[in-house]
Design goal:
23 strands, nine-stranded mixed sheet, about 575 residues, globular, seven-stranded parallel sheet
């Protein structure tokens, strides 16, 4: 029999969006600093098979995994905090569980029994969690010591009920010493005097106990730290020891949450509750954990320092909800702090840059242009649909003509190609077949192998290799140097359309070089770089998906270096960190 994995369940009460994902990620990070191997699972109680067809404005960004799984944005937090590569199996949805149970029923696996939520659905959930938690971490042979399971939704939701029941049963399956429940709840501060109220948390814990689960740890979200007596009051009415109740108040950044939890002693509580001291941790792995904590504290410290600002205009389609671009924001933050800058994002709704807005709402039009023009660089992220595309094209044109650093991602690369084709190659009618199937000059075309009718899971998804071209320009291009001179890089994709290979020669003859192409065929354009420009780079893939706090994404790093006028020095090998500072691993 192999070692027994420890399980930490993170549930939420009172309201949704309370921060369970950050609490789960921060807890996992702290356990890694002890030298433990940690993995994570996110349970989403919606009926969708995955997040691929969900609107970013409703549910935040769709996070793409190496294996092509389209998942909730919390899996991005897990990967970034834990520095692991997860798979589609690390995201459980009601749709996946019911599909598995129904498939078994159709095969006759239940031997004629009446298939019910209990025990068949709840057993399927438990079996899934155990299977994933015993899978070695990618790139290693280490089976996880700890698996953190985040229960999506709020205690009391109808759709969450089967998963709550599954966890009630699971605590007995794995045993008391291998199961710990962290309940994240809200302690609102109301009234003119700012009095914290504990009743919502009391009610939430009462609901949880009524469903058969008792929290071992309370993580209480609040605008301000606990006042005297609040922890004791919560302990009395929630039956949780005072030292197991943690104040998770608003911080200067999310990177301080692990520091906050560690200062309050969460590692001591977890070590005692799960008997982590009995685990055999090799000395070299324990040393890695110590180094990780040193690096993380330095990273969090930089976020509080008075650093010069770099302003990036994000010209997108879903700017009303910042979570639509969660990984883009994190990639910008990581790159900025690694080059000793603070990021300031100017959100620009792409459609506000278009001429139609000038006639309909002149104030909004001029404000959008002012925010973009006042920025140190422009980033155009991915998106679907025609709305705002002409505004993105105008943003790419402005960056090209005014020598402003530019990074295009997926759709951001395609609009850069369209703009260049129109204004530099005489293709006045250039457009994308995604928005006009009958356009005279399709600069962007539908990929022939993609299913044109089924939407879910049919794009070109997941990690795929990109090979830098063996040309004079490509060998010396900035983006290849930022990737450390590698001949081939692996990045994650999510697209149905690609640059039309028929016009590539015309584009390159005018200075728009496709320095990276897909390694499989060499016919698919993956990376472009414009000649004679401080930094004009675009990629068909999504580099933001594999950014890490201590290892920023190279295209984003280049954008921040160019925006802060440090790119030439960096490429020349100069150190950007003073002797008085701790240098982050990059």
């Amino acid at each position: 029999m192999g070692k027994q994995t420890k399980y930490i369940i993170v549930s939420g009460g009172v309201i949704s969006g309370i921060g369970k994902g950050i609490i789960a990620s921060s807890t996992g990070l702290l356990l890694k600093t002890l030298g433990l191997t940690v993995t994570s699972i996110k349970i989403d109680p919606y009926l969708n098979i995955d997040a691929g067809t969900l609107s970013p404005l409703d549910h935040g960004e769709v996070f793409v995994l190496d294996d092509g799984g389209e998942a909730d944005l919390d899996l991005g937090n897990y990967e970034r905090y834990l520095n692991v590569t997860l798979t589609r199996d690390n995201n459980i949805t009601t749709g996946k569980i019911y599909r598995e149970v129904i498939d078994k029923e159709r095969r006759g696996d239940y031997l004629g029994k009446t298939v019910q939520v209990v025990p068949h659905v709840t057993n399927a959930v438990q079996d899934w969690i155990e299977r994933v938690s015993h899978t070695p971490i990618s790139g290693t042979d280490r089976v996880p010591d700890v698996c953190i399971v985040e229960l999506g939704g709020t205690v009391g939701d109808i759709e969450s009920a089967p998963f709550i029941e599954a966890m009630r049963q699971f605590q007995f399956r794995v045993g008391h010493d291998n199961f710990c429940l962290i309940h994240v709840s809200l302690v609102p501060v109301v009234g003119a005097v700012g009095e914290p109220k504990t009743k919502p948390t009391q009610a939430s814990v009462r609901d949880l106990r009524g469903l058969g689960l008792s929290p071992d740890i309370l993580a209480c979200r609040s605008a301000q730290p606990f006042e005297d007596g609040i922890r004791e009051k919560l302990s009395m009415f929630c039956q949780v020891a005072p030292h197991q109740i943690f104040s998770v108040h608003d911080c200067e950044s999310l990177y301080h949450i692990p520091v906050l939890l560690r200062q309050q002693g969460i590692l001591d509580v977890l070590t005692k509750r799960l008997q982590l001291g009995q685990l055999d941790i090799p000395s070299e792995i324990a040393h890695e954990g110590e180094q990780l904590w040193t690096q993380w504290r330095e990273f969090a410290r930089r976020h509080t320092r008075s650093l010069d600002r770099a302003t990036i205009a994000v010209v997108g389609k879903y700017t009303d909800l910042a979570d639509s671009y969660a990984s883009v924001v994190k990639a910008l933050e990581h790159a900025a702090l690694n080059v000793n800058r603070k990021i300031q994002i100017n959100w620009v709704e792409a459609s506000d840059l278009e001429e139609a807005t000038m006639h309909k709402d002149p104030l909004k039009y001029h404000e959008a242009w002012q925010r973009m023009c006042a920025s140190d660089g422009i980033l155009v992220p991915g998106g679907f649909g025609e709305r705002g595309v002409e505004g993105m094209i105008l943003a790419a044109k402005w960056a090209r003509e005014h020598k402003l650093p530019y990074l295009g991602i997926c759709l951001g690369m395609q609009v850069a190609v369209i703009e260049f084709a129109r204004n530099m190659c005489g293709m006045a009618n250039a457009f994308s077949a995604e928005f006009d199937k009958d356009c005279e000059m399709p600069a962007v075309v539908f990929m022939p192998e993609i299913d044109p009718t089924t939407m879910g899971g049919t794009m070109r998804l997941g990690s795929r290799p990109t090979k830098f071209q063996d040309t004079e320009f490509a060998r010396a291009c900035m983006i290849k140097q930022l990737y450390g001179g590698e001949d081939e890089v692996h990045e994650r994709h999510r697209h149905r359309y690609e640059v039309n290979p028929k016009i590539v020669d015309d584009l390159e003859s005018k200075g728009l070089h496709f320095v990276g192409r897909d390694a499989e065929t060499g016919e698919r354009m993956e990376i472009l770089e414009l000649a004679d420009h401080p930094y004009f780079v675009a990629a068909q893939y999504h580099p933001e998906y594999i950014t890490r706090p201590l290892s920023p994404s190279p295209p984003f790093l280049g954008l921040l270096l160019a925006a802060s006028k440090q790119l030439d020095a960096y490429l020349a090998g100069q150190d950007l960190v003073t002797e008085a500072e701790t240098k982050l691993k990059m």
